[in-house]
Specification:
Layout: H1 21-29, H2 31-44, H3 46-50, E1 55-56, H4 57-64, H5 68-80, E2 85-86, E3 91-93, H6 96-99, H7 110-116, H8 119-123, H9 128-134, H10 139-142, H11 148-154, H12 157-181, E4 189-193, H13 199-207, E5 212-217, H14 219-231, E6 238-242, E7 255-259, H15 267-281, E8 288-296, H16 304-316, E9 321-322, H17 323-332, E10 335-342, E11 347-354
Parallel strand pairs: 4-5, 4-7, 5-6, 7-8, 8-9
Antiparallel strand pairs: 1-3, 2-3, 8-11, 10-11
Bound molecules: S-adenosylmethionine.
């Protein structure tokens, strides 16, 4: 397996012009089936079970409480897209792609595959016509009126752990590249707002030994953060705080990082969060807002976040944004856009300063 995902992987379109157009559309339509198959494999922990060596579907079914012949069919489908391989002796084995469904590898996608198939996340796609007709998200209707994060916090704390770990694993490769791509060292204190389990903040602090950090998130995220910060050797330079960015944001930082936060929310909600950040800055000289999120290119250019935009929309009325939309959002919230820096795909760093 490759040790980490290619930095350009998301910058290249998934479909090439080498296949006939009808065939490509057919394969696009099968995307949901592939996602469902990978969800099952991730949820059952198949890749972890195969880490010790090849096993039959019956053997794997006995170990996971699945139905043997049916699990065989799921694994055969996964093998057809190169995730696992079926050997002539009837046993399945890991492939380089299947390695990413293991729990214990850098850049593991196991928890993400689990999360994408979680019932309320998955069921949103059965109601996309409602969203396109009304402009409203489906997710809250499937979760008794709760946003995704309220649901995690109040109804599904064990699943919250899966979600936060999935975000941390995505950062395994991205966080060091983000830390290298921008001079965070000029800020004595960096706050990561909605910083999850602290993977990005750790990478920034490791890269800049003089910088101190504030990690701010909801309780289920902070719970998993302390161990990570300790392991990364930055816990003594990090202050962890639980709270909601809709109510307040910790003061005392020179840079306020919000990575993959704004895309979860509507413009109105984002303005609320950014106004809290503005208040926290409280006129501090040189303070900066650093939003790390997708920056959608105009017209037809491929960008992974153009697809993520729909996932965010159906789940909680979130949105990915173009440079023009970022500028408008910042100006509506008391900031001006300084510039947008390139960083690890699929994100850019939108730098703003309070006005
Ligand atoms: C998509 S995740 C991104 C996490 C992390 N910044 C990253 O890039 O991996 C969104 C984060 O926002 C946090 N969050 C959601 N609602 C929040 C709130 N009201 N206050 C503070 N953090 C919140 C979540 O717990 C989660 O860690």
């Amino acid at each position: 397996m490759t040790n980490e995902p290619s930095p350009m992987a998301l910058a290249n379109p998934p479909f090439s012009d080498e296949r006939p157009d009808q065939e490509q559309v057919l394969l696009m339509l099968a995307g949901k089936w592939v996602s469902g198959v990978l969800h099952v494999a991730a949820r059952l922990g198949i890749a972890d079970l195969l880490a010790e060596g090849p096993r039959t579907a019956d053997d794997l079914a006995a170990a996971t409480g699945a139905h043997g012949r049916t699990l065989y069919r799921f694994l055969r489908a996964a093998a057809a897209v190169g995730v696992f391989a079926e050997r002539p002796d009837g046993r399945f084995e890991l492939t380089p792609r299947a390695e990413y469904l293991r729990s214990d590898v850098p850049g593991s996608l196991r928890n993400l595959a689990y999360f994408y198939g979680e019932t309320t996340v998955w069921n949103c796609w059965g109601h996309v016509m409602d969203t396109v007709r009304t402009g409203e998200a489906v997710g809250p209707k499937l979760r008794g009126g709760k946003t995704w994060f309220q649901y995690l916090e109040q109804d599904a704390p064990e699943f919250a752990e899966v979600f936060h770990r999935s975000m941390t694993a995505l950062n395994d490769a991205r966080a060091p590249r983000i830390a290298d791509s921008f001079d965070f060292g000029r800020f004595p204190v960096v706050a990561d707002i909605g910083g999850g389990q602290g993977q990005l903040l750790s990478a920034i602090l490791r890269r800049h030994p003089s910088v101190r950090g504030i990690l701010y998130d909801i309780p289920t995220a902070i719970k998993g953060a302390r161990e990570l910060l300790e392991r990364e050797g930055v816990s003594e330079r990090t202050h962890c705080e639980e709270g909601s960015f809709f109510e307040s944001v910790p003061s005392g930082a020179d840079a306020y990082v919000l990575k993959a936060i704004m895309h979860d929310w509507s413009d109105a909600e984002c303005e609320g969060i950014l106004r809290r950040v503005h208040q926290a800055m409280n006129g501090r000289p040189g303070a900066r807002l650093l939003i790390i999120d997708g920056v959608l290119p105009e017209l037809n250019e491929w960008h992974y976040s153009k697809l993520m935009d729909i996932a965010m929309l159906v789940n909680d009325k979130g949105a990915e944004r173009t440079a023009t939309e970022w500028q408008r959002l910042l100006e509506a919230s008391g900031f001006e856009l300084v510039t947008i820096h390139p960083t690890a795909p699929p994100h850019g760093i939108v730098e703003g300063r309070p006005v």
